[in-house]
């Protein structure tokens, strides 16, 4: 996720005073967390209620009030390598949770195969908890491991070689989707997410995605220079940008969402637009969401064309 995507996501809730995506000082890569300041405190509360637990691409984001800065909570991020390829994020948290409260965690995966790279990050609430985790787990063999793991503080300036390796881990080709079974699982997750978030009973219209190949670079409807624009029709009058983030976020990188509203009533006019970075991800979202029943409405989802409603 880029700084602009972070701003676009949280800007759909309310007016933002400032936002910052935290990056590694050496590699320039995102560390997986950021900060957003709203002008209206009520929007901050709404953002937590709306976006906490939202699944974006392969990640589930956590949104909460920022903690006051102090020396006790700085530099509490750990870099873990040598993890078993079969270890899940939940198992990683279970392994480290005995040492303190975990703020965030993640396991790096190969974007093509989806297989773990054996590298992960754990951010504790306090530095002292991270120190205890290093003492207790560095050089130890976790359950299911044949080799000991390495646990150390992330972003250690003296470890330039490891930083270079870490930088390479992030540089991978565009994600390629597996077959229909994986997409059925993706649909199941989205269906449950919408049900939990909005209390609506919804279902996916069965659609085939076999044989779908990349057409990036070809002049076809939807291409907008900065990404692929998707037209979403038959939205309810009370629909807002957050529902579009909820729906399209699990399929890939979303750069912008927009619900078209009536000037007088400020109600949704029944349609909106979503811009996604990658063609394959946009096509997969269309294949899965066209015909999707949201509440009492069946959505029509397609690439934007010249004949599509204009904003």
Structure description:
The structure is a single chain. The chain is α+β, with helices and mostly antiparallel strands and 311 residues long. The protein folds into three domains: 1-63, RRM (RNA recognition motif) domain (Alpha-Beta Plaits, 2-Layer Sandwich); 67-159 and 167-173, Alpha-Beta Plaits (2-Layer Sandwich), CATH 3.30.70; 180-303, Alpha-Beta Plaits (2-Layer Sandwich). The protein is 28% helix and 25% strand. It has eight helices and 14 strands. Strands 6-7-5-8 form a four-stranded antiparallel β-sheet, with helices on one face. β1 (16-23) and β2 form a beta hairpin. The chain is globular, with a radius of gyration of 21 Å. It starts with a helix and ends in an 8-residue tail after the last strand. Mean pLDDT is 75; it is low at 156-220. Belongs to the RRM elav family. This is ELAV-like protein. Residues 1-68, 76-156, 228-306 form the RRM domain.
């Amino acid at each position: 996720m880029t700084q602009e995507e972070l701003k676009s996501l949280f800007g759909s809730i309310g007016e933002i005073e400032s936002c910052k995506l935290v990056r590694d000082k050496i590699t320039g890569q995102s560390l997986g967390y950021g900060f957003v300041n709203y002008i209206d405190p009520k929007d901050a509360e709404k953002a937590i209620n709306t976006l906490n637990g939202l699944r974006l691409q392969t990640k589930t984001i956590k949104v909460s009030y920022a903690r006051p800065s102090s020396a006790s909570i700085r530099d509490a991020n750990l870099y873990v390598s040598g993890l078993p390829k079969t270890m899940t994020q939940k198992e990683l948290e279970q392994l480290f949770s005995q040492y303190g409260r975990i703020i965030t965690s993640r396991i790096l995966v190969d974007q093509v195969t989806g297989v773990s790279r054996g590298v992960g990050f754990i951010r504790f609430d306090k530095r002292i908890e991270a120190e205890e985790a290093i003492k207790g787990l560095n050089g130890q063999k976790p359950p299911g491991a044949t080799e000991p793991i390495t646990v150390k503080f992330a972003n250690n300036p003296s470890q330039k070689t490891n930083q270079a390796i870490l930088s390479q881990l992030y540089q991978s080709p565009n994600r390629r989707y597996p077959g229909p079974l994986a997409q059925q699982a993706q649909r199941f997750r989205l269906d449950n997410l919408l049900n939990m978030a909005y209390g609506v009973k919804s279902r996916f219209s069965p659609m085939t995605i076999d044989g779908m190949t990349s057409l990036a670079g070809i002049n076809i409807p939807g291409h907008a220079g900065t990404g692929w624009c998707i037209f979403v029709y038959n939205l309810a009058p009370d629909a807002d940008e957050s529902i579009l983030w909820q729906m399209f976020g699990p399929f890939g990188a979303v750069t912008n969402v927009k619900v078209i509203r009536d000037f007088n009533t400020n109600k949704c006019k029944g349609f909106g637009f979503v811009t996604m970075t990658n063609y394959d991800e946009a096509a997969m979202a269309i294949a899965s969401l066209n015909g999707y029943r949201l509440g009492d409405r069946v959505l029509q989802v397609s690439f934007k064309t010249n004949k599509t409603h204009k904003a």
